[in-house]
Design a protein that fits this description.
This protein is mostly helical. The protein is built from four helices and no strands. Helices cover 84% and strands 0% of the residues.
Length: 132
């Protein structure tokens, strides 16, 4: 039971890491939204990170319940495993949040691209599922 919990935490960490890598690649390739290719890349990154956030939320709630169960069943050992496994995904998610904010605040001089960029940025923040 503990091993399965650890494996699920590792899978969650992998999903979050994948989203962060996609975001980092985008930010390295695009310092601004200057053309349609940059906007398309931004849309893709927004989709990926929205889905990663959704996975984090769903898995996080399940793992929280499972973690409480482990801590009550295994005592201090279970609690130590839960804390040790929970911290890396949380720290990674908080660090990725800063990168997401940077991606949503890139310069965009073209009025047409800027309108779409702002719309996608707003959806990224306000909705759970990417509908764009």
């Amino acid at each position: 039971m503990v091993a399965a919990y650890v494996v699920c935490q590792i899978l969650l960490f992998g999903v979050l890491l994948w989203g962060r890598v996609q975001l980092r690649r985008f930010l390295r390739a695009h310092g601004a939204i200057s053309d349609h290719a940059a906007l398309a890349g931004f849309m893709q990154v927004a989709r990926v990170n929205m889905l990663c956030s959704l996975a984090f939320l769903v898995f996080g709630v399940c793992l929280l319940v499972w973690g409480v169960f482990l801590a009550t069943q295994r005592g201090m050992t279970g609690l130590a495993v839960v804390i040790a496994c929970s911290l890396p995904p949380i720290v990674l998610a908080l660090g990725t949040k800063k990168m997401e904010n940077r991606a949503r605040s890139l310069e965009c001089n073209d009025p047409v691209l800027r309108k779409e960029y702002q719309r996608i940025s707003e959806i990224w923040v306000k909705r759970a599922v990417p509908y764009f």
